[in-house]
Amino acid sequence: SSHEYKLNFKKSKEVCLSYIQDAMLQKQWKRAAEFLTFYIESLEKDFSTEYMGPSEIIWRIGTEILCHHSHSSMKEFISFIEQMKTLGVKRYLKVCLEHAFHLLCNGLIDEAYQNLSLAESWRFGEQTAIQDKEMKLIQAYRGLLDYYSWCKQKNIMLEHGQDGFEDLSVEQEMHSCFRKAAVNLKEIIKIPGVWDLFVKCYVDLLEFYGDHNEARQVLNEYAYNSKFPANPNAHVYLYQFLKRHGESKKSLISALKILHDIVPSHELMIDFNIMLQKSKKRKKRRLGLEVIFAALDYAGWKENVKAWSCLARQVKQIVISEKHLDWIKQEWNSRKDWWPAFHFSRYLAKRNWQENESLSYEKALVAGILLGKDCKYFKYVSHQGCKAQVKRFRILKKFVTKHNPVYLRISG
Questions:
Q1: Phi and psi for 303 in degrees, rounded to 5?
Q2: Which of 38, 172, 320, 381 lies 20 to 30 Å from 85 when distance is taken between CA atoms?
Q3: Which residues, if any, are the signal sequence (predicted)?
């Protein structure tokens, strides 16, 4: 029957699609291409009224196969993409972007720029307004390529500047690229979203021409506008900008505080901790201890000598002064059940000693304070250090033994 035929036909298409997916996952690109051919042929025989979005599927799968197939060429890829552009106006601009990306990946920068310029001039009735965001993306990526051209011209100017190089055509081309790049980059970063690369390039343009106020405003907007998604990089870029221009420590700390709240394991937490430790305000020094403890909760920091050095220095200062031992106690209470196995096992003591003496020293100091002189990590490292007749390990052993009562107070 007609109904049964349609059901079987639909099922066979789904099976063919699953075979394509399986072949792609196993990187069997020739097999995937053969199944895609069968799939396209089956679509030509499909008289069902149900919309399946075949052009989207063919475009996505076909592009992936052609990018990886050993016998595909740039000519074939371009031919395929041009056909995909005519399959549906709703996806025209997206396909143009895909085309531009592929050209860029193959080093064809001028061709990619030309492709984006043609896409920017595309108009198709109401679809032009509907695809406004895609058009802005087209313009933004063209802006990136204008920025790339600007960088090339700038480097020519800088390289020959000391030799009295004077070429008005290079300077004019450079300013022309700046204007085109700035206009398009400025537009895209107004739309709420993650625009890291575009923001960095736009700020670079502004800084080069001395427009620091505009650059600061852009970075502040990107970092603090609630309409934009939470983005750690936004605060990193703002911090780096403030640091480059010698802003106050208060501004730097403010930028890093939000970064800490979003990504406590970020590499800039060492800078943050050092700034906080140097502060005269007790509240900030307390935050510094919290920051470095939080960073060391993550496996990626386990062997970070700077991080352990920061923690060891602050813990040592607190122990010597015997002030604010409650800070250490508060941080340790939530970690004492898992940090000993995570950081201070005998196995780690042995490995750290063999691989990095400085790391084992800093960790042994922290372990001795937090877990006492009988801690496995401290005992192994201090014994090895004294055995090797390294003076600072003898001093370390005396220090921990002398302040062992502190461990009893911290452990409660």
A1: -115, 25
A2: 38
A3: none
Q: Is the pTM of this model over 0.85?
A: no
Torsion sign over Cα 295, 299, 302, 303: negative
Give the residue among 276, 331, 267 at the shortest CA–CA distance from 298.
267
Answer for the pair 17, 39: CB distance below 8 angstroms, yes or no.
yes
Q: How far is CA 125 from CA 58, 79, 91, 109, 130, in A?
A: 25, 26, 14, 30, 9
Residue 72 Rama label (left phi>0; alpha psi -120 to 50; beta): beta
222: tokens are: 């990107």
**Angle of the 325-333 helix axis to the 404-411 helix axis, nearest 10:** 50
DSSP 8-state symbol, 192:
S
- Render pLDDT for 159-191 as a digit per residue (tens, 0 to 9): 776 555 566 788 888 999 999 999 999 999 999
Q: What distance in Å separates the CA atoms of residue 116 and residue 91, rounded to the nearest whole number?
A: 15
Helices marked H in 162-211: 168-188, 196-208
Which amino acid is present at 207?
E
What are the start-end ranges of the H helices in 245-371? 249-262, 269-278, 282-295, 305-321, 325-333, 339-343, 346-355, 357-371
Question: Using an 8 Å Cβ cutoff, are 356 and 303 in contact?
Answer: yes
Q: By C-alpha distance, which of 81, 65, 5, 76 is closest to 32?
A: 65
Token pair belonging to 315: 């813990």
Q: What is the mean pLDDT of the chain?
A: 89
What DSSP string describes 211-279? -HHHHHHHHHHHHH-TTSPP-HHHHHHHHHHHHHTT--HHHHHHHHHHHHHH-TT-TTHHHHHHHHHH-
